[in-house]
Amino acid sequence: MGDFQKDPYTVGLSMFSKITDKILFSPVERELRPEQEMAELLQADARDQGTLECMDTGQTDSAEWQLVTSRANTSLLTGVLPAKRHQPLCPLDWELHIDQDGVVTDVPLLLEKIYKGGMDENIRSEVWKFLLNYHKWHHTTEVRETNKKARVEEYFRMKLQWKSLSDDQENRFSGFRERKTQIEKDIGRTDRTHPYFQGDKNPNMGLLQDILMTYVMYNFDLGYVQGMSDLLSPILFVMQNEVDAFWCFVGFMDKVGSNFEFDQGGMKQQLADLTDIMKCVDPSLYNYLDTKESGNLYFCFRWLLIWFKREFSYNDTMTLWEVLWTSPPNYHLLVCLAILDTEKPSIIENKYGFTEILKHVNDMSHRIDLNATLARAESLYEVLKNDNTGVVNNKVRGIIGLPLVSCEADNTLTENGEEMLEMRSASKPVPILNGVKKERHVTDSSNTSSSLNYSSSVEVISELEDETRFESSIASNFF
Predict the structure, then answer these.
(1) What domains appear along the chain, each with residue ranges and CATH number?
(2) Which of 46, 55, 229, 316 has the greatest count of CB atoms below 10 A from its CB?
């Protein structure tokens, strides 16, 4: 049995990671590898692994089946009006939520306002500290100031630990040395077109490096992985203070740290969850992508890894992040679906294949309407939340944090015969998946449960000239 069948995610992510460093750091570097060549590289690797017949995210075996349903050609968003977005939280409204002792009041209402409208840029540096757990909502101004002093001391103590290492110590500390080298490489190409980071010898670039190096000392098990610099740079821009930016970055990493795990477990789960929601929300789109060898949804990898940082302008990214920080669980997956729902006509009507889908998604960068996307995502959440037809199964409800329904209600559609499957094989009894019966070829469980073992390396691609030689160790990295 091929490696892909043993662990489709790891092999797939390994294949995809082979091209990302050349296409994602800047438009200039992206031009070095056209989408056609990227697609050929992915497909060639897939053929080498014998995977093109079974690239089904979340399944380790080949599944030959065809969905025949009354809603197979529709999306749950069909005919649903976009939600109305509100005005950003303004400074006056924020002040009204703070009592005389500095305690933030009516926090659920405050979070709802941010979720529905974001916030004014003039209060970001203050409010983000609460959203990222640097400050506690219930603390008084006096307690916050005391805690901040302790955080300042702790930060500089950790910073001194790595600053005081001698060259000889670094030479004997390979893990630290590799992380330091990767950080130096990445900050040199992080947001260099933004005014806050432009120019040679820009001191803000030095702050980026110091914060990331200190985070290595704070969380050496995770350390530094490519992509983290993208998450830090907007935070530093908002805070414009080294210590505040560090602790807010810690809070952000507490939310998304699983994206950078060695075994890619967090990213695997998100892709699987996204697939499950898409199958429920828009089976026709999923089926189309699946027939075009894109049902694995790897083209969403960058979106998920760094929370759409490369897809929107700087200001839009900050608005999106504060919305996601105040939204229901896994709301970023609904944002993915909202974007794809908008692009569905272009993808299907133009009959895009594997290469065209990849190119189309890459070309969408900085061309996505954030307000329209958020309005669509909010509408989708309300549709899922208020579903009483049984279309939204418990698996999807659990992903987005909705209460589960009884088994009887969850299987209503199947029992009523409103959704059926036309089978091409009948090797096993038909299981129920996502409220739809599905027959599949079953492989040996001892093989499907095994996984590949990759070494951890922060270097994705060594040199442009060495385009055909890739180490399997890059499976744990994306950029």
Answers:
(1) 1-62+443-479 (no CATH), 75-117+263-433 (1.10.472.80), 120-260 (1.10.8.270)
(2) 229
